[in-house]
């Protein structure tokens, strides 16, 4: 019992407040865990769908690159020798899901002019443009997949922490508080029973004392009557102040 507080009304109210707060926190965390679980399933479905299309898109993009090289020749060296200006940049944002901040990656077009427009003028220009479009699609899906995968991992960690807190409240904190409240209630009930028993004993002793005093008075009255002495009984309407003589207006000085 050393880890339990003293069984007082104040501690009972304190632990009732703690139980109310713990139950409220448990309900909120349970709702948060359900929301995270639903979002987790959505991310898993999106990742599976994106990975399913990535294989076909990548294969199609590299096949179009092979067609472009066949039609326009080896233009990789010309691309590498050109001015490498980023046409696409990756920006990051934050998505808030039930209080959990998830990173989101987006593809942003910088508006830079492609300096390799002269590629394919001799031949294969359409194939190079088609290959560029297909690789842009692959890049877009790759950024989307990276965003989904990063958010998925972050969400998984947040779900583990939330589930641990829910389980701790449900299986440890709330039962412990309820046990302490039961202990305090039992002890207070026991104290009330002790006080009630003590009061009954005090009341019984008072009644016995009154009965004893009444019995003694009756015996004294009986003995007085046997001796011929009439017991003096003060009337209810008797004026107590009439026993005292009047001072006839004389002043009484107190020194």
Nutshell version of this structure?
Helix content is 67%, strand content 8%. The chain is mostly helical and 255 residues long. Helix 1 packs antiparallel against helix 3 (125-226).
What can you see in these coordinates?
With 255 residues, the protein is mainly alpha-helical. The chain has helices spanning 9-72, 76-81, 125-226, and strands spanning 88-97, 100-109. It has a two-stranded antiparallel ribbon.
What fraction of the residues are assigned to beta strands by DSSP?
A: 5-15%
- Uncertain segments are none
- Helicity, in percent? 55-70%
Largest sheet entry: 2 strands, antiparallel
Outline the fold blueprint.
Elements: H1 9-72, H2 76-81, E1 88-97, E2 100-109, H3 125-226
Antiparallel strand pairs: 1-2
Throw out a few tags for this protein.
mainly alpha, two-stranded antiparallel ribbon, 255 residues, rod-shaped
């Amino acid at each position: 019992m050393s880890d339990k507080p003293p069984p007082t009304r104040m501690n009972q109210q304190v632990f009732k407040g703690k139980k109310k707060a713990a139950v409220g926190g448990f309900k909120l965390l349970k709702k948060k865990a359900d929301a995270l679980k639903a979002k987790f399933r959505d991310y898993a479905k999106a990742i599976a769908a994106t990975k399913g299309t990535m294989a076909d898109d990548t294969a199609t993009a590299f096949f179009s690159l092979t067609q472009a090289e066949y039609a326009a020749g080896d233009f990789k060296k010309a691309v590498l020798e050109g001015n490498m200006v980023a046409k696409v940049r990756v920006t990051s944002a934050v998505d808030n899901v039930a209080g959990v901040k998830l990173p989101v990656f987006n593809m942003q077009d910088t508006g830079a002019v492609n300096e390799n427009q002269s590629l394919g003028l001799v031949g294969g220009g359409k194939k190079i443009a088609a290959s560029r479009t297909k690789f842009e699609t692959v890049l877009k899906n790759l950024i989307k997949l990276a965003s989904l995968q990063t958010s998925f991992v972050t969400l998984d960690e947040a779900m583990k922490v939330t589930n641990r807190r829910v389980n701790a409240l449900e299986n440890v904190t709330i039962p412990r508080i309820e046990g302490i409240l039961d202990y305090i209630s039992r002890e207070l009930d026991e104290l009330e029973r002790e006080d009630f028993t003590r009061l009954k004993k005090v009341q019984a002793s008072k009644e016995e004392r009154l009965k004893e005093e009444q019995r003694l008075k009756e015996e004294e009255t009986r003995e007085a009557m046997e001796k011929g002495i009439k017991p003096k009984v003060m009337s209810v309407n008797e004026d107590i102040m009439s026993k005292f003589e009047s001072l006839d207006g004389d002043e009484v000085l107190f020194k």
